[in-house]
Amino acid sequence: MRNVYEVEWKYYDAFYDSFTDDVEFYREMFGKLGVRGPVLELFCGTGRIISRLMEYDPYGMDISERMVAIARDKGLGERVMLGDARSTFAGRKFQAVLIPLNSIQMFDRADRLAVLSNARRHLIPGGYIFVDMFNGFPFPHNIYHLGDIVEWEGKTLVRSFVPRFYPGEDRVQVIYFYEVMEPYRKEIAYLDLYLPEREEIEEELRLAGFDVIDVYGGYDMSAWSEDSEKMIFVGRVADGEGGD
After folding, report:
1. How far is the C-alpha of 3 from the C-alpha of 112, rounded, in Å?
2. Quick check: is 79 in a domain?
3. For position 140, what pLDDT does the model report?
4. Is the pTM value of this prediction over 0.90?
5. What SS3 state is found at 186?
6. Cα dihedral angle (138, 116, 204, 139), rounded to 10 degrees?
7. Is residue 242 situated within a structural domain?
């Protein structure tokens, strides 16, 4: 069974391109914090977010060659680079780094620390980090239809998933089913997601050289609670810290 990103690059924009709640959250936060750019998005995928934040001089990094190619074809060009968020240096510094839409949850603690440390390496003194993730895993055991049925390149596309839980572990494996009609075909892929608690991410941010200045429970900037759907961390490079 293939990893989800070996399959989803073909369908990513069909399901996500119209989603802009996080974009508006970043725009509002940038105004609140005085962020003017440049901004780096790690795990930028096909450029959905940075293509809508051009006024902040955005750049992106992703490990998927196919997604980077799609982003560049959208007009982002060399603003998007191929790289591993755990180790690749983009060659310049930024005022803010974004880790969007649950991306950090693809990693265990050691790799999360590597991602966060690499993000700090990219920031100017006093720069900001934004980490957007699930607050736990919002789905119990069952089969779920994920997202709407969409029309994609003249065909009907359906996506559903089944979560596989591991008792005693902070990890869930999500098995995705992609079905394309007319003519019918199905592709199956998996994604492992880790489910750290708020306190764990706050500790990891501190270890990576950040002060946590706020945690939101949603894109509406609501305060975090145990019942929130999201955990959106806002951190700032700690005094005396900065890029290497």
Report:
1. 19
2. yes
3. 66
4. yes
5. strand
6. 10
7. no
How many Å separate Cα 135 from the centre of its chain? 14
Residue 186 and residue 206 in one domain: no
Question: What does pLDDT average to over the chain?
Answer: 93
Q: What is the crossing angle of helices 198-207 and 109-121, to 10°?
A: 50
pLDDT category, 59, cuts 50, 70, 90? very high
**Count of all residues that appear for the chain in the document:** 244
* Pair 91, 171 in one domain: no
- Residue 210: give the domain boundaries: 2-136+196-237
For residue 231, list its beta bridge partners. Answer: 133
What pLDDT, on a 0 to 100 scale, did the predictor assign at position 135? Answer: 93
Task: Quickly count: other Cβ atoms within 10 Å of residue 225's Cβ.
Answer: 8
Looking up residue 96, the CATH number of its domain turns out to be 3.40.50.150
Alpha helices in 72-189, H assignment, sequence order:
109-121
Mark whether 7 and 102 lie in a shared domain: yes
CB 97 within 8 A of CB 26: no
Residues 142-192: tens digit of each pLDDT? 676 766 799 988 889 999 888 888 888 889 999 999 999 878 999 999 999
- How is residue 67 annotated by DSSP? H
Q: Please tell me whether residues 78 and 156 are part of one structural domain.
A: no
Q: How far is Cα 71 from Cα 147, in angstroms, rounded to an integer?
A: 22
Residue 37 main-chain phi, psi, to 5 deg: 110, 170
pLDDT at 244: 54
Answer yes or no: do 54 and 151 share one domain.
Answer: no
